[in-house]
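Margin note from the TA: students keep mixing up input and output lines. Inputs are the sequences; the output is the structure of the whole complex. Example:
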Amino acid sequence: MKRVAILISGSGSNMVALVDSMTGDHPARPVLVLSNVPGAGGLEKAAARGVPTTIVDHKPFGKDREAFEAALQAELERAAPDILCLAGFMRVLTPGFVNRWAGRMLNIHPSLLPKYRGLNTHARALEAEDSEAGCSVHEVTAELDGGPILGQARVPILPGDTAETLAARVLPVEHRLYPAVLRRYAQGDRAPVMLG
Ligand code: GAR
């Protein structure tokens, strides 16, 4: 059984989709949900599912990313995960941390990578008058939102869409894509999952 730690900063809807998928014959189980934001809505949802939670607030560390990551690393080592899933975790990680978890860390990003790395992905897709949008799960490397793609799901962009309506169309497909990729990845299969 593979041990999975999930890092969140917010509502944790992707975390919930991942946790709820890890039952039965799934090759992995959740061992920790960690938030860098003390009040993150996802913490209660994880606790309600019986998953241990912890908080490593980035704020007391100021600009010292390495000290923050040392605290993160200490919590992770106690949970001893085989796989780290970033799920709406909104901190950029340094190459030192990323390299320590190389080949064991996934992220979900709300765009069809390599388009729109970084923030405000849906607004940028609308601005570019794209006809479709979506999400990607990728391995995390030192390049921001740049690692090998493990899965993508597409949705149409419709007339009158705003960043909010588009986000609301993409989020449910994130919830299908991320569990599908994790299941495959936990079996050691890195062939991309393509949905839609
Ligand atoms: C999701 O849409 C995820 O793709 C995005 O944040 C949201 C988190 O929602 N991630 C990023 O933008 C990463 N740069 P959730 O907390 O409900 O899963």
